Give the backbone structure.
Amino acid sequence: MANLKDLADHLGLSQATVSRALNDYSTVNATTKQRVLQAANHLNYRPNTSARRLATGRAGAYGIVLPKADNLLMDPHFVDFLSGLTTAFAAHDLDIVLTGAEGIQAYQRFANTGKVDGFILSSPKSDDPRIRLLSEMEVPFVVHGRCDVDLDYAFYDIRNRSAFRDATNLLLNLGHTRIGLLNGPSDAIFARDRLKGYTEALVTNDLIPDPTLVMHDMMTEEYGYRATGTLFAQPSPPTALLCASTLVALGATRRLRRDGLTVPEDVSIISHDDCLSSLKTENFSVPLSVTRAPIRDAGTEIAKLIIDLSRGAAIADIQKTVPVDLIVRASTCTAPQARS
């Protein structure tokens, strides 16, 4: 395996020029960069991390701070997100550094150590203090989602509002007028946007939103099971459910089956689908209709965005919102009252 000196000698260039070319510095022209990269591949060159850090002033790694209470490493959504992120970083010889801590001070301490070049922020809140802190420190970061701070920041998000508006409209067009929403945590921006989309569809169709049909909690199978039981204990239960995730839908269908209700004859279901590698909505006993936005793709895209941001791209160019597909399968059909 060649080192930096071997590569420089092979090309007849200085080690400084080769190093700048490998790190995509704008001071090196495109032809030289391409020549260096081809030679690096040919000679099986791999950078020495410590040497690269000294030469560039960069750590070659990005940080994620995990709230200790959330236990995200057990969450299949986060695991698939991390898979997309690390795969994309590996293609650029970059690493992810994970740490568990509470409070924004962890970000300040982590950044000051120089161990990371920036951060990935997940689960943003409405007025997220992390965004203000890192902006003031001038530390690169990309938010998975959006919030309401009056600052310009880099983000990747999906169109949660329109996705749940479209899903609700589908159910309304099938004759459902009582639609249960098993939403995410009430303080999460994505959950707020999904509630807005759901409410907009009802109001547009001259229906008064019923707050007893809306539930909020962490998106787990247990929540789906428990919340479905609560909704169907009402005197006038829903005829359709809109679930915030595949795990919630799994719990909901388990509870419906336990209570002797069938999908979709008794209850139609639409789930948001992050395309979890361990749980496929098309493989449910009744394949689920879904609003699809793969969580792994989010990880891949966020890796690209923070790399571009660290290389000097303008924040305005690192703000990406992607559409969500609505896929209709066997879990939705005409409402029972519309069949009679």
